[in-house]
Amino acid sequence: MMTQEGKYIPSEWIFEQGDWRIKQLADVGDKNLGKRKVITHPDYSNLLQLDVNIPIGSDIEGTQISATYNRTLKTFFIYGLRLGVGSMDLPKEVITDKGDFGDLVSSNKKYFFADVQAGAQLPLKISSVFLIPNAKGIFGVNCGNKTKSLNCGFSLGAQVAYRLSGKTYLIGGIDFQRKFFLSQDYDLSDDDKFPPYNILGIHLGIAW
Question: Lesser CB count within 10 Å: N end or C end of the chain?
C-alpha cells in the first residue's frame, strides 16, 4: 500500500527481472493538486469570456459590454486583451436663443475600447471546484466621437471554475476595477480630466 497525505492508495506490484515494480495504481484524484490545495499545473491555459462592466458612483460612465481573452503563463501569471463597447454621458451647456448659456445637459456618446491587462493569480482547489483569486494591472484606450482617451488602472477579483469534461472548464467570476484617465479628447472646463471611476465586472466564459 502507498499513502498520500496520510491516506492509503491501493496498488498492485509484480516482481520482474529481479526487481519490484508497480503493475496497477488506483486513481489518486487530481494529479495537479499540490500542497495546501494550490494547483501548480492547471489543465487549461486559455480563457475566453464575456463581461458586463457596471460603473459604480459615476455620473459619466455607462455600462460596458466586452469580450476578454486571457492566457495563463507558468500557472501564476496571466495576461490578455479585452475588447468592448461602452457609453458616456458627456456634460454640455445649451446656448439659449438670446445667446446666454443655459443649464448643463447630458449628451450620450458611444465608444469602442481595448484594454491590455496582466497580473497574477492563485488557483486553489476547494472540493469539486477551483477558486482563483487574481490581481491585474490595466492599460486601455477608448475610441469614439468626443470620447477618445487613454486610461490605466487595476482590478481585484476571483473566479470559480468547474470542469465540464476533459480539460474544458466553465468559469464565472467578479472583479472590482479602478480606472484613471491619462488623457482625453473631450474638453472639460479648466482643463480638468474625467474623475477616476470604479467598475463592478461580472464574467462568464470557457477555459481550455
Answer: N
184 and 163 in one domain?
yes
Output DSSP code: residue 195: P
**pTM score:** 0.74
Which of the pair, 186 or 125, is modelled with greater confidence? 125
Residue 176 lies in domain: 31-207
Grid cell for residue 5: 497525505
Bridge pairing between strands 168-184 and 124-126: unpaired
Q: Rounded CA gap, 92 and 57, in Å?
A: 20
The set of cell numbers assigned to 177 is 476595477
**What is the pLDDT averaged over residues 40-53?**
89
Give the span between the Cα atoms of 138 and 180, in whole angstroms.
10
Q: What mean pLDDT is predicted for residues 25-44?
A: 60
* Mean pLDDT rounded to a whole number for the chain: 81
**Selection from 79, 82, 103 nearest residue 92 by Cα:** 103
Instruction: Identify whether residues 166 and 193 lie together within a single domain.
Output: yes
User: The domain spanning residue 195 has which CATH number?
Assistant: 2.40.128
| C-beta atoms surrounding 186 within 10 Å | 19
- Pair 6, 36 in one domain: no
Is the predicted pLDDT of residue 180 greater than 90, yes or no? Answer: yes
